[in-house]
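In this section we walk through a basic example: taking a raw amino acid sequence and producing a predicted 3D structure, encoded as discrete structure tokens. The instruction is simple. Fold the sequence below.
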Amino acid sequence: MIVCALVSERTRKYTVRRSRWLTRTRDHSSHFSPLLFRLSLDYLPTLFRDATTEYYTTGLTHECGVFGCIATGEWPSQIDVAQVITLGLVALQHRGQESAGIVTTAGEERGRFFVHKGMGLINNVFNDESMKKLKGNLGIGHTRYSTSAASEEVNCQPFVVHTAHGPLAVAHNGELVNCSALRRWVLARGVGLSTLSDSELITQSLCLNPPDGELDGADWPARIKHLMQLAPLSYSLVIMFGDKIYGVRDPYGNRPLCIGKILPLASHNTSTLTNGGTSGDAEGWVISSESCGFLSIGARYEREVLPGEIVEMTREGVRTVCIVDRPDNKPQAFCIFEYVYFARSDSIFEGQMVYSVRMQCGRMLARETYVEADLVSSVPESGTAAAHGFAQESGIPFGEVLCKNRYVGRTFIQPSTRLRQLGVAKKFGALSENVKGRRIILIDDSIVRGNTIGPIIKLLRDAGAKEVHIRIASPPLKHPCYMGINIPTSEELIANKLSPPLLAKHVGADSLEYLSVDGLVQAVRQNIANKEDANIGHCTACLTGEYPEKLQW
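The resulting token sequence is shown next.
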């Protein structure tokens, strides 16, 4: 029975991956053998595990968090680097909950790497015993979320490989849009790959000599630059070798990465980091997908890693090695959905706090989709910031109508047929005194498949709501993302099936409206730093289907 269950689950996961693959390849049917389409599901899982099956290696999308820390001054350091990284990863837990890992080292030439990785949440992977083994003066960490059958321990990051010059560790957030081409390039040079992860592909690519050769040992900046020219997006990387950590952001700046400075507890210094800055009063430097965890570890946000920038972190400080230009001088393409959904609200991107942008989205939504109502509320906590902005702009008071059950999570208790038929929203309860007899505007950040908003509306109806108007603080999702975000296939996205009026009828709302693409872009750029910069740009591919780079499978 257990074996059957495992086979069934693997088949189910593969079906999802195959659907994503078919969506990607619908315009390239001339490249495929009809045999692939005649394969039964009984054999598909085996086929998918074959690393040589090229077109089945592009379904590994994941949204992850990376973190790095290096102590300054004399080594061994008084800073517990592993503990700093662990706390940093806890702050990034929203970016991935399937696996986590940390690699540390003392920073000695060809020194030993201490590694601990595992499946599950940060607090479950790391304990006192494992933390004691993670010794060193620098280290990197990773928390991972993946789709489909890739949720296996072999894919846990950071990846560690032993090169001719010493051990190398890499943590990656994103997904390569030309994964198959890069895989062919690596395999053609005699390198073996043990997983289907493009993160391992990046690691192995870095182990190969750059085209101009190397005169005196490994030239890691040159290797990184060569990788960036081979793979223009999408990635943010933290790379550890010897006594250095390199931070890398793809030329389009699609995935976020920022730098923080660990200050002495008594320090009140307010100076900012500049290019080539030294350690000064810093006790260490950190680099992270988001800035939200910096305060909890005694670090101050300094700046973002620029699109295409390679930064080098040593005990002396942080410096820019080089900046790789985008192909054909195209504008940057920072993922706009980081603002809408993925990032924690206290993170800073492009000189502005995510919470402020979400409030601005709510203001724009009120201008575009105003409706008469008695109360503005939100689906907690995803739509709360936008709901406050909507309320401020519309003049309609904000009030809570839903109480969230914070202890539901992934339950093993399956609801009975009766409860399923009632459509109970098990994550929420209704605050009936705020709801009864009122016209409610309910704000949420997005609708993907459309299977969760209906039960919430029913809950409000049962609590006595007179009207329920749904407002979504982002445009309709219509296209999959191939750059590191787990968005379903086009066929699964409800916006491709139902117009807003039909969707409103389907979920039981009195009306349903989205924020426009122009409204979202305007909200994001309202208070952006350097708004006059002609190169400012945001990726809206999941909304418009316009991808920053041609997809290569």
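Looking at the output, two observations stand out. The longest strand covers residues 166-174. The CA atoms of residues 434 and 442 lie 13 Å apart. In the next section we compare this with other chains.
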